[in-house]
Design brief:
By secondary structure, the chain is mainly alpha-helical. About 55% of the residues lie in helices and about 5% in strands. The protein is elongated and about 110 Å long. The chain folds into 3 domains: about 150 residues, no CATH class; about 140 residues, no CATH class; about 50 residues.
């Protein structure tokens, strides 16, 4: 199964990937490579179907860009070896990681191909695009200049810089559902954001972009791979599986989606989420509709305080209260909602007064014309 070429994919590859990423335990069928058919198997692939589609598409895109020879990954087993290297030694710099990948290759590999290989592994393991902006057309088009993984920076240091803890007086509160926090969460339902801000919700496969608000496009990006989040959380319940992404970050991403944006106890939110899952252009991971926090949380994690997403949530809340101007008319006014609405009311009043004046002038002209005709042509 490890010798399967990277341009091929089946359930055996899926099980092998899960074993490397999340320490899956195989059932008897998995062990003899018959394919996993048992719904009770700990490595049942249907749990992460959407993530596996992402992995397959990612690897195929990588394969399509490769030259005829001189590339580091020829089989899925080659990729899994690199994954094990990075997860077991997160202190590696990018150059050191590339050199270890090269050492496993049987032929010389171009520097750019090595950098592409390191970026591929990071995308698979962490769902982060760490490639150079020049090599990432999607990020270049969106103007997303997030920090890249530099050559001599350890990977764990790169992650620490990406996900620096925050301390917000409301969102990071340790007191759970206090009144202020509860009120703010209620304002951030996706149904309200769509109604008041006319926001559209765009799925992203880069976990850094979760809750990223693009005012120019009037979009809110949502990391929707709930199956990836849940599987990592399940694996991290076992202390022997350390992983790379902070457990708290995974909890915050899942909680902010299923309890704040789309609270599954709210019928309107469920309908909106269902429409996003079934959307043919930007479909969300169907697993996002399954509320399973109790199955992936440890005791004491039922109430989430936000230390990684506090700033994003606060920015979104402030936007909901004082929207930035979007139309040309709004951009000519004050940015604060109260001042903008006051000026808008003033402009409407002035326009109405001008209209009344014009109508009065027309009426006066008509009356003058009638009086002139009566004087000129007396009966």
């Amino acid at each position: 199964m490890a010798n399967v070429s990277i341009d091929q994919f089946d359930d055996r590859v899926a099980v092998g990937l899960g074993e490397v990423l999340w320490s899956w335990q195989r059932c008897d069928d998995c062990r003899v490579d018959k394919g996993c058919r048992s719904p009770t198997c700990p490595s049942h692939v249907s749990r992460v179907k959407r993530y596996l589609q992402f992995y397959e598409a990612l690897v195929l895109d990588y394969h399509d860009e490769l030259p005829v020879e001189g590339y580091p990954f020829k089989t899925h087993g080659d990729i899994w070896k690199a994954i094990s290297l990075l997860t077991s030694r997160p202190e590696l710099t990018r150059v050191e990681f590339a050199e270890l990948i090269l050492a496993c290759s049987l032929a010389p590999v171009d520097h750019k191909l090595l950098m592409d290989a390191t970026a591929l592994i990071v995308k698979i393991v962490c769902m982060i695009d760490c490639s150079n902006l020049h090599y990432s057309p999607g990020r270049l088009e969106e103007g997303n200049s997030r920090p890249l993984w530099k050559d001599h920076v350890p990977f764990n240091k790169y992650l620490q810089d990406l996900f620096a803890p925050q301390n917000h007086p409301v969102w990071s509160s340790q007191y759970g559902q206090n009144e202020v926090l509860y009120a703010r969460k209620a304002q951030l339902k996706a149904t309200k954001l769509r109604k008041h801000l006319n926001l559209t919700f765009r799925p992203t496969h880069d976990i850094r972009d979760h809750l990223r608000l693009d005012v120019r496009r009037n979009e809110l990006q949502i990391f929707h791979y709930a199956s990836f989040l849940k599987e990592n959380l399940r694996a991290k319940k076992n202390s022997s599986h350390l992983g790379l992404l902070p457990r708290q970050l995974l909890l915050e991403v899942l909680d902010s989606t299923q309890r704040i944006l789309f609270p599954l106890s709210d019928a309107k939110s469920r309908r909106l989420l269902g429409s996003l899952v079934s959307d043919s252009d930007y479909s969300f991971d169907p697993d996002i509709e399954k509320f399973e926090l109790s199955a992936v949380c440890n005791p004491g994690e039922e109430v989430i305080s936000y230390i990684y997403l506090a700033d994003q949530l606060e920015e979104l809340f402030q936007e909901s209260q004082t929207p930035q101007p979007r139309t040309w008319l709004e951009k000519q006014m004050e940015r604060r909602s109260g001042a903008r609405y006051m000026m808008l009311a003033t402009l409407i009043g002035v326009a109405f007064a001008v209209l009344l004046g014009v109508l009065a002038l027309i009426l006066s002209a008509v009356q003058t014309w009638i009086a002139y005709q009566a004087w000129k042509h007396p009966v």
